[in-house]
Design goal:
Chain lengths: 160, 160
Amino acid sequence: MSDHSASNGKLPGLLRPALSRNVALLLESRIPARLSWVGLHGAPRIVPIWFVWTGDQLVMATFAGAAKLAELYEGALAAASIDTESFPYRSLRMGGHLSLTSLDGLADEYRAAAARYLGESAGRTWCRSLEGRPQVVLRLTPTWASASDMSRSPFLAEHG
Amino acid sequence: MSDHSASNGKLPGLLRPALSRNVALLLESRIPARLSWVGLHGAPRIVPIWFVWTGDQLVMATFAGAAKLAELYEGALAAASIDTESFPYRSLRMGGHLSLTSLDGLADEYRAAAARYLGESAGRTWCRSLEGRPQVVLRLTPTWASASDMSRSPFLAEHG
């Protein structure tokens, strides 16, 4: 259920292949990640954001000038939750350090995310409307992860 | 769209009646809040959690002994997002200070949340299975809030 391994560049066990069905489904889902970080003056922040999972990083993208970029920096700590909104809940959470890369236009990972979240055709239309806008790629390298799947809980087996 | 009012005990404008349709629907929805705070060693934390909105506080409950209680304290800063997982996205975010109250059993707000999220009957069954377990109520008094509704964006009017 849980793997809080030390941060030594090693991927947490539950994010290593072969992924559990629960983790794989969440990473392939159209559920936005909810990303949190610590903002100015120590205040917690949270935003829903598209992601793609590369096999070892959770990759997100934002547009140059976004307010969050005033608070995110190379090496900043972040945590993300990818979880279902309907009962019985399934969830995957992970945390680690962010790395940021500025681009002249849209990130490949953003195009991939748009295709997954919106479908191939609508994703292309979406990206076309944003073509040329500079993005900043946010790469979260997880040092810990935890997952849960309430559909496998003994409670539901008894009461479900 | 956005109201980052100063923290002076006054409810942010967009959480004051009459609520916009977007904000009202999110506060009445079965979407769990995603709650974030700053954990030990300054690491950002995030969990999905049931909530009820009382009109001026976002009220959540956790069980005594939950790991998060080692990191939450009276006056701790927290932020919450209540947002849809399907496009076009609608979201409500708010942040402020937490107050914590320990109880001998289930919180009334937790019973109300269970009824909303699971339905009246399943909510009662759920709570019956947890009867007598001590809870800690988390009350978030928002000092800022922001909302967005992509279904009202000019982009979708053009392309949708």
